[in-house]
User: Fold this.
Amino acid sequence: MEKIRRLIERCLKKNPCAPELCFNEPMARHTSFKLGGPADCLIKLPCGDSFESAVGFTIDLINAANKEQIPVFVLGGGANILVSDKGIRGITLDTSAWTGETEILNTAKAQRSQTEITFLSGTSLDVAAEAAAAKGLSGLEFLAGMPGSIGGALWMNARAYEQDIAGVAIQADILDFSSTEVKRHTVPINKSEFGYKKSPFQNQQCLILSVLFSLQTRDTNEIRCQMEKHRLDRSTKGHYRYPSAGSAFKNNHDFGKPTGQIIDELGLKGLSIGGAQIAPFHGNIIINTGNATAENIRDLLELTAAQVKNATGFILEPEILLVGEW
Assistant:
């Protein structure tokens, strides 16, 4: 822990900013499952006028951590992850303060179309959809009511209502720390490189700083009407009743029906291990009923997948990412 403190102090001298530092921070405070063990060191990166200094600090810190072989984990909205009961070793970079619209991408504002809008990676999906609607820009309605952040959504190519984020994103500003030195660069979004809940970012170590979207003009009232329909649909399906990570498994069109329907037809709704339960109201949502452990959730994921495979031959692919020391 002391080694991490010294790294942080050294990087702050070069890049003065005011990150929030938490040691042994319970990850239950930072995930939609409301569970998870402690992060050795969680750093909430600052925004506002100090954003560029925060980026410089982040670059130097990751470089230093790599040299010291200290692992670095990037935390977005915490909505699609399961953090182990043992927690996360090393440094966890919390980007939740990086919110709102920005002009930091390497595109001159004068050359930008009036239908383009850029959001910092920590911006919540619902907030981004609202901000676009306020400008009469359509294309992000499918994100209304969806938990998570812009950066995390691009990383996993978030999808709902037959739309995905790769269909509206056109470029991203990222920090790539796959190699020995961190590189900051702007990358175009090539839709052919994205798939169902897949993105090229999953094949590299990177931190997404911001994302540029190309949207369509539309009446604001019509946009908000569509957004409210999506929020109501999510609410009706029970997405907000208990702590969860949304869909537990990916859908597969080869199965001929949604994963939730398959699980439901096998009579698995309500199946539980400890405080983890397959939601009685939706077959593809695993919930924390109040005292679940990460191990409970993982065991229920594995049991559900095994029972589906035994009964149908289908191999379910988890949508929830396991994070930390297992």
Notes: The chain has a mean pLDDT of 94. DSSP finds seven helices and 18 strands in the chain. Helices lie at 2-14, 51-67, 125-134, 150-156, 220-236, 259-265, 294-312.
